[in-house]
Amino acid sequence: MTKSALDRLGWLIGTGLGSGLAPLAPGTVGSLVAILIYSFAPIDEDSVALYGLIGVGFIVGIWATGTLITTSNPDPGRAVFDEFVGVWVTCLFLPKSVEWMAAAFFCFRVLDVAKPWPIRRLERLHGGLGVMSDDLLAGAYGAALLNGLRLAFFD
Fold first, then answer.
1. Which of 10, 84, 93, 149 is deepest in the core (most CB within 10 A)?
2. What 3-state class would DSSP assign to 42?
3. pLDDT per residue over 109-145, tens digit each?
4. For residue 111, with 0-12 CB atoms within 10 Å meaning exposed, 13-18 middle and 19 or more buried, which class applies?
């Protein structure tokens, strides 16, 4: 069966430009690609463009990661676009310095793996919404934590 251009686009986005195909730790690789894309993009940490990237990324991600789901695997490891959006949320309001981008990367990965309440519950949502929602909340937790630290100790 031949895949349509739309199927291929869903695969490309859902796998985080192919980063989800990494043989080890695809979520970590996807997060790294996401932080690199954001770091070099001409987008400010509190700009409308970043909010737009996150919002559109979330909506598109529901569809794109949903195309990778099978009945036997509701959250396939190769679906890493959720990490992209989660990392971008973690970066909200943080200076675009190497130190803060590294902190955002590590903070997001810890929260994404640990899944503090109620992040794990969001995985139960149907289809791509479940794939995307838990990382969106992990990113919000990361943004709150890192910005709290920044404001308390570095500004």
1. 84
2. coil
3. 999 999 999 999 998 898 999 999 999 999 999 999 9
4. buried
Q: What is the pLDDT of residues 31-55, one digit of tens each?
A: 999 999 999 999 998 899 999 999 9
The torsion angle over the Cα atoms of residues 32, 34, 35 and 36, rounded to 10 degrees, is 90
Half-sphere exposure of 147 (CA within 13 A, CB side): 14
Q: pTM higher than 0.70, yes or no?
A: yes
The token duo for 2 is: 């031949």
Q: Are 30 and 84 in contact (CB under 8 A)?
A: yes
Characterize 8-22 residue by residue with b for buried, 16 or more Cβ atoms within 10 angstroms of its Cβ, and e for exposed: eebbebbbbbebbeb
Please list the residues that pair with 73 across neighbouring strands: 70
Q: Left, alpha or beta for 34 (phi > 0: left; psi -120 to 50: alpha)? A: alpha
Q: Please check whether residue 85 is in contact with residue 141, taking contact to mean a CB–CB distance below 8 angstroms.
A: no
Type of residue numbered 107? C
